[in-house]
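Dear Dr. K.,

Following up on our conversation at the group meeting, I've run the structure prediction for Adenylyl-sulfate kinase from Streptomyces incarnatus. I'm pasting the input sequence below exactly as I used it, so you can double-check it against your construct before we proceed with anything downstream. Let me know if the numbering doesn't match what you have in your notebook.
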Amino acid sequence: MTTGATVWLTGLPSAGKTTIAYELAGRLRAEGHRVEVLDGDEIREFISAGLGFSREDRHTNVQRIGFVAELLARNGVKALVPVIAPYTDSRDAVRKRHAENGTPYLEIHVATPVEVCSVRDVKGLYAKQAAGELSGLTGVDDPYEEPETPDLRIESQHQTVQESAASVHALLSERGLA
Ligand SMILES: Nc1ncnc2c1ncn2[C@@H]1O[C@H](COP(=O)(O)OS(=O)(=O)O)[C@@H](OP(=O)(O)O)[C@H]1O
Ligand SMILES: Nc1ncnc2c1ncn2[C@@H]1O[C@H](COP(=O)(O)OP(=O)(O)O)[C@@H](O)[C@H]1O
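The predicted structure tokens came back this morning:
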């Protein structure tokens, strides 16, 4: 069985987390790895149905996703997780759970600046916030605690999607995981 790992892509809305995760998933599958993408939106429809965006709910959401990712990774799957995870303590708890089980865990900060994210505005959330139709948007009027020592930091505003995915892939190879 190949080695599993959790690859958590943290960053602001529209930073590029989901796009990089699916591009990387394609590359890894082509090499024969088993891969699952735990997409934040999908998770919120099912295992986190009913949770909102308060600090407490975001923490609960991230712990649930971390639990599932670790189960998958422990069983040989590359679990790719494009989820904001804005709080350091939530991310640290997930890292700790992986360490306790001896399961590889990589934290990737998709560090696209808010000025770029708000222009991309893939889901129209920044526009809604600006129009006063939504509040508590991460990076605008809700906190995002930047990772201080991520395994990799991606400046997606200076790269193509392919380059960003390749940099995560290279890190996995360096660590003997791909
Ligand atoms: N207030 C607010 N703040 C941030 N994000 C919001 C909000 N409301 C809805 N959304 C959409 O929900 C997605 C974030 O869910 P996550 O599960 O990734 O976030 S968290 O880790 O629980 O904070 C996030 O997806 P991405 O754009 O892919 O990051 C948003 O589309
Ligand atoms: N290097 C890059 N990596 C990822 N996305 C990029 C990059 N350059 C431009 N983009 C674009 O930015 C947008 C990111 O959206 P998305 O992946 O949904 O963000 P998130 O999941 O972080 O909310 C997409 O339209 C994508 O094509």
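Two things stood out to me. Strands lie at 5-10, 35-37, 78-82, 105-110, 152-154. The radius of gyration is 16 Å.

Best regards,
J.T.
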